[in-house]
Amino acid sequence: DIDDDFVPSQLGIKDIISLWITQILQTYGDEESKDGAPVCEGSVDDLVGGPIFLALYPYFLRYGGVFKLAFGPKVFMVLSDPVVVREVLKEKPFAFSKGVLAEILEPIMGQGLIPAPYAVWKNRRRQLVPGFHKAWLDHMVGLFGDCSTQLVKNLDAEIAKGNGSAIVDMEERFCSVSLDIIGLAVFNYDFGSTTRESPIIKAVYTCLQEAAHRSTFYFPYWNLPLADVLVPRQREFKNNMNLINETLNGLIKKAQAFEGTEDLEELQNRDYSKVKDPSLLRFLVDIRGADVTDSQLRDDLMTMLIAGHETTAAVLTWCLYCLAQDRELMARVVAEIDDVMGPADGETPTAPNYEQIQKMELVRLCLAEALRLYPEPPILIRRCLEDVPLPKGAGDANVTLIKGMDVFISVWNLHRHPDCWEEPLKFDPTRFKRPFQNPGVKDWAGYNPDLISGLYPNEVTSDFAFIPFGAGARKCIGDQFAMLEATSCLAMTLRRYDFEMTKDASEVGMEMGATIHTAGGLPMKVTRR
Ligand code: HEM
């Protein structure tokens, strides 16, 4: 429910400067802490030597679910406690903006839904969410199968070339298939990245890399005058953005030209098998009406391209990585797929339908467990627009998040919280079938499998200890889409192939982009089952 009359608090430059000075005096001087949070002075080596979400885990174990990370003059509040996370995401979503994240993403996503401030967000969310209705998702399942079939055909060809087996970087393959899917689903554009390379694909990847670079670089040099002319990577970024914008603008024009064509009635009746272009863009243009500017449409498309591509590729990658290390679990997963879809004896790959995806519970729980251990993104970023007193969870401190404070919700820590999960570091999808309670975490209802109602366990099932798609008003709008897509793709690949790690699991390594990447790909030995 979005309240039309609500106006969020405003944050002025004076608020930011005054908070900054106070924080420095509190952290490095004698002034008493106004927010009551334990202070952790982060070591520069810890914070720049690797992905920041990894560095925050030992700090969390030492300082608890709420602590303040002081890193030079910059101070962040780090939250890793379910009760506190519930307060921020569910109870007070509009007391926060996207802060630093919005600043980083603005040049790429503009006023798209992820970085959008409240006034833009409330209109666009209303327009976009109905696009993900059941009939459309059902139709998309066919698309997921078609694109995964292409992946399977490519793997078959590699195996044939390698006389029965091939070493394949599965992270790269999952990235290609999810890019193809999101392009067709969102704006009816065939990247065809499973079969070819193209400048537009390269442009999309370079922009994602730039977003990652900007989110981890300590000084925003790209805002300096002429940076996009003098600095080669910024020049390249600008050219790539121009190419993507031209392509998206062309697609918007094409969708607008479609308006009123012969299949409009079928589109209105949601009879997608008879609709020529069933993309989300077509829905936005032809069903939701014309009161949206082209530039807002561009921002929406760009946001969904980025939000829906890498995330799904990452969950597939980490899920395969975890399964390949547990042969016994892998065998049970494959048995479930065979049971639901029948064994893969023929040459032509077949894709699961919606009902079959619903039946493959263990496959879906494996994907959920991969999202628990490797959440995408591992940190959610916010900035306080007003003072927010926090409830007590595992710790006893009385903490108030002060207006202007930058906040990191560490989903990585939350999903590995030793008070909320049994053997938190173990890949065990069946944990989602067992209840778990801990009276030590005050006001936390625990994990209750009876509350699973859709395709995956979520924030309700876990009382905010598991938030794979975020929670509250700013929760992901593509969660069902992503779960259907990932289940279809994983089931099709596991049904046909055996996967073996080609290097030690500990050597795979992690890098932080918009999501968690492997450090050098996920090379696997692939053979036909
Ligand atoms: C938001 C995760 C797939 C579109 C989010 C958020 C998370 C998330 C955690 C909340 C961000 C925050 O609170 O700061 C994921 C994961 C995915 C996935 C793990 C795949 C496994 C998708 C797909 C789409 C999508 C397929 C679109 C087709 C969005 C949008 C938002 C969002 C538009 C912003 C919602 C808002 O602010 O109102 N996603 N996502 N995501 N996601 Fe996803």
What does this structure look like?
With 529 residues, the protein is α+β, with helices and mostly antiparallel strands. 49% of the residues lie in helices and 10% in strands. The chain is built from 19 helices and 13 strands. A six-stranded mixed β-sheet has the order 1-2-3-9-6-4. Strands 5-13-10 form a three-stranded antiparallel β-sheet. A two-stranded antiparallel sheet has the order 7-8. Strand 2 (66-71) and strand 3 (74-79) form a beta hairpin. Helix 8 packs antiparallel against helix 14 (294-323) and helix 9 crosses helix 11 (232-258). The termini are far apart. The structure holds protoporphyrin IX containing FE (HEM). Protoporphyrin IX containing FE is lined by residues 113-114, 125, 303-304, 307-308, 311-312, 315, 371, 376, 380, 468-470, 474, 476-478, 481-482.
List the keywords.
529 residues, alpha+beta, six-stranded mixed β-sheet, three-stranded antiparallel β-sheet, 19 helices, 49% helix, 10% strand
* Order of strands in the sheet with most strands: 1-2-3-9-6-4
Average predicted local confidence, pLDDT: 90
Give me the count of strands.
13
Termini Cα gap: 49 Å
- What small molecules does the structure contain? protoporphyrin IX containing FE
Please state roughly what percent of the residues sit in beta strands, choosing from under 5%, 5-15%, 15-25%, 25-35%, 35-45% or over 45%. 5-15%
How large is the radius of gyration? 23 Å
Described by the principal axes of the CA atoms, the overall outline is globular
